Amino acid sequence: MSGTTRAIGASTPRLDAADKATGRAEYADDVARPGMLYAAIHTSPHAHARIRGYRLEAARAIPGVKAIVTGADLAGPHCGGIIKDESMVARGKVRYVGEPVAAVAATDPETAGRAAAAIEVDYEPLEPVLSIDAALAPGAPLLHEDYPSYVKTVQGGGHGNVVFESTVEEGDVERGFAECDTIVEATWETQAQHHVYLETNGCVADVDASGRITLYATCQSVHHIQQRVAEELGEPMSRIRVRATRVGGGFGGKHASNIHSIAAWLARAARRPVKLVLSRMQDFEIQRSRHPARVWMRTGARRDGTILARDVRVTIDGGAYADESPPVLAFALLMSRGPYRIPNVRARGAAVYTNKLRAGSFRGFGNPQASFAGESQIDELARALGLDPVELRLKNAMRPGDTAFGGQQVPSCVLRECIERVRAAQRAAPPLAPRPGRRRGVGYAALSHISGLMGTAASVQLRTDGSIALATGCVDIGQGSDTVLVQICADALSVPIDRVSYAPQDSDSSPYNWKTAGSRSTYMTGRAVALATHELRAKMLAHAGDMMECAVEDLELRPGGLVGLKGLPKAVSFKEVALRSLFHSGGPIAATHGFVFDGPGFDPKRAAIHQLAFANLGVYTYGAHCVEVDVDEATGAVEVRRAWCAHDPGRAINPAACEGQIQGGFVQGIGYALTEAMHWNAEGWLTTTTLADYKVPGVLDCPVEILPILLEDPDPTHPVGAKGVGEISLVGAAPAIANAVADATGARVRRLPMFPERVLAAIDARA
Amino acid sequence: MSALARLHRPATVEEAVRLLAGGDGERTRLLAGGATLVAMLNAGLVDPAELVSLAAVDELRGIGTLPDGGLRIGAMTRHRETAADVRLAGTLAVLREAAARIANPVVRNMGTIGGSISFADPAADYPPALVAADAAVEIAGPQGRRRVPAREFFVDWYATALGPNEMVTAILLAPRAPGLGSYDKLYRVAGDYAIVSVALSVAWRDGACARAGLAVGGCGPRPLHLDEADELLRAGRLGAQAARRAGELLAAAADPLDDVRASAAYRRRVIPRMVERALAAARDELSRTA
To answer: Parallel, antiparallel, or unpaired: how do β-strands A500-502 and A468-472 relate?
Structure first.
């Protein structure tokens, strides 16, 4: 290929940036259809109660009310992910304050709101279960009496209020500890964090004369929403079409929602379009959070710092419904070994039901909880051994060819380089002036994550003028996948990116994609795009060979959409190739590539795995964070001053987008570490339902210098070597900050967020 | 808002007061900058039938110098203007620093001092600053104008000395004296209301403390202030021992709540530490400028 300007590796501005910056981008709330109704939700005032009955007369009597739905109208099976335990509106029982109980569609939002408020529900309050301990207490009230009869796609050994239990074990932990000179042990607690995407969840359901529904939704997968709505409405998927709007942030919080089925149901009932956009307060109340977790961990090493054994117990609070709890638990266990060579590891865990908002997927997916504990414990182990925490990490760090926890071999691993690079960068930086009353500390965290799982596909077509039409099911939720996928496609054909169109996601036409989740878009869908484009290129070259009467081996792509004869000026344009295929011979040139993650699976000879909720996942990526903090001696307030974040994106398709992901992830990690916490009161009411109560760090709360370092080590299983960095960048913030606080003060904070109050208490406890 | 409220736009204070008096009590609301009221409307926390906008009342705008050299800050003066006014120096700098710490640029461009103090959130930035500076609040009502010291204006959680159909028209400040003012805020994120705030105003002449005003925000129903603490600081020339004692007195007098920002116990613990820090910084500054 003689291309001089490669699309891959260029920090191309986002394709959607100008539309978003100028307000032209269409989000869910911008969608309007003629005759559109507005939905409002009646939510539960009880954390736990039996529904005895509904009185709808008053609501029905309000002029303008066109449709009402309650749990009494639902006859089909429950829905959900691995455990089908929920429905779009509560049936029989409510299990958290804010749970949708009924919904109304009316001619305007005010009428809908009044009608929703006029619905009367007769409840029999039950004792709420509001913590992990309460859920596991003997004789605890059961949230799901029908648990045994729920459909489960994976059996997880649930019982009582336990949703799921998993175990991963390698080696012999007891024997490993017996050989250790030093053992440390502690328990960490983490909180519920909300995604706080700028755009709340919302959708518009339209219905045609035949009753077929089209849903416009801000979401992370049109295919996933389509499947769920079809299931809840008892329709074949062919009767439900889902189209993605622009998405104002997802972070895992838009993978599913009650609202899609509610809007679709009301539209079908009223035979009119229905809009349902959640207020910020309702989004807090009915969507999802990161799982609160308790992680107990014990790690032992020889005197020289060789880590021999780790024992882990993870308990996550899943809230009222299972949702993503089984896979989050499983992933937390897989990540609990950390990116280290530890021969003997046992990780056991349980997810429990409580009468709170369900927890679900959220950037990091169990890894932030596990890594907060694990990376804090590495520092504590180093202190107990009298070793430098960075040297301890380097000594035990995984290397290429090692195996991940679970037994998969890892071909590419630049962990040691990441750790060394952040340390060198911190040491080389001009020191910040000390500040009176503040103690300075430096902290590190070493990280790993995955970027390969589940299935995806891409299709490419050659258009009449030689342009390329690319389509995938990958929804850009703000992370930049539209741009990156177009860059991969354009690069494979040596054309500028403006010669490639990218189709918005539509379940009628988009190739299947599981979800924008799991840091998988660049690896999974990017791989499908590259391979589909390679196939398209081969077909184009075959045409060009016929046209120039030469062998395909003698052809080369030339920049700007030309196929040339090697060594000669002779060439045909993509346009000529297209015209030939369309009007002369061969037919339209198109290619599709789809696959399901095909990396090496868990190794049963190495790891005893019990109920893991994943068939397979992999494509491990590594990173290291280093932070400098100031701790206010008087108040315990922590300020992050600078951060260095080294990551391995395999190959950075768009370096600026990579760096943006790293900085954004780190900032969300600062929120997790220091300020963000959802809080429920003793009655089970969520008290942090506005952005006045729930605090996300702003620009003044973040260091000016969050310095990404990209260590590119192309992944051999990806056509252009790329891996994902979307989640791992969040994971390191909390443990690195906690380690820096300990470095500054000698105080160990084991509970998130590290509110000033908790830091001060830890400083007191030190004495 | 179930229906749009009726909007009035009086041109004078007297007209505004008449509209208030002619209205339906709580359902008639003054609209100043809207920084708080509009947020409350959006959240459905208030449902006014009538809004009396003060945007066209010229008298309420801007910061003027009084004949005695003091300053008069009109009730409709935006936080941004207060934060930028160089006349707020010396003992009055506390007000300027507090204004600069309110929320974010959008709120500072819209919010007004009259609106802010009428809402009287004890965790807001102006109340302790006005108490420390010993400002007075000018009030207009059906009976005419009156003045109330800031130290008496804030009476309880979200409650002020404003009587029925009264409104704040201005903040009155005595001529600035040499010395300093400072405002420190402990917060969850920048721009949030205070967990604890410490406002300090010190008049300093010939190496002696002529007057000290110390007030703490976020720790009870109203700005925390003790004449005894001020006098300790003055007599002790802001010394470390006086600072410690003043902090202890204020912490003992504090009546904070456990809330989403922090626990009451933590606030009590932090008050003396922040007070000591504020006074240490003041001593530093005075020794540098002396």
So the answer is: parallel
| Fold designation for A17-24+454-596 | Aldehyde Oxidoreductase; domain 4 (3.30.365)
Decide if A634 and B189 are in contact by the 8 Å CB cutoff.
no
A701 interfacial to chain B (CB closer than 8 Å): yes
At residue B290, the pLDDT reads 64
Record: contact B260-A701, CB cut-off 8 A = no
Q: With bands split at pLDDT 50, 70 and 90, how would you rate the model's confidence at A5?
A: low
- CATH code for the part of the protein at B179-289: 3.30.390.50
Q: DSSP of A70-84, one letter per residue? A: EGGG--S--B-SSEE
Between CA B27 and CA B48 the distance in angstroms is 4
Note the pLDDT tens digit of each residue in A702-734.
999 999 999 999 999 999 999 999 999 999 999
- Residue B218 is which amino acid? G
What is the percent of chain A with per-residue pLDDT over 70, rounded to a whole number?
Answer: 99
Nearest CA among A412, A410, A378, A407 for reference residue A395: A378
Strands A638-647 and A705-710: parallel
Locate B104 and state its tokens. Answer: 């974010």
Judge whether A700 is closer than 8 Å to chain B, CB to CB: yes
Tell me the DSSP string of A483-499.
HHHHHHHHHHHT--GGG
- Which residues in chain A are contacts of B101 at CB distance < 8 A? none
Contact status of A757 with chain B (Cβ, < 8 Å): yes
Can you give the pLDDT at residue B26?
81
Are β-strands A151-152 and A93-94 bridged in parallel, bridged antiparallel, or unpaired?
A: unpaired
Pick the CATH number of A31-126+198-249+254-286 from 2.40.70.10, 3.90.1170.50, 3.40.30.10, 3.40.50.720: 3.90.1170.50
Evaluate whether A724 touches A520 at the Cβ level (below 8 Å): yes
CATH class for the domain made up of A293-452+602-766: alpha beta
Residue A634 and residue B273: Cβ atoms within 8 Å?
Answer: yes
A147 pLDDT exceeds 70?
yes
pLDDT of residue B60: 98
Q: Quote the pLDDT of residue B3.
A: 61
Tell me the angle at which helices A756-766 and B264-289 cross, rounded to the nearest 10 degrees. 90
| Closest to B180 measured CA to CA, from B102, B278, B271, B69 | B278
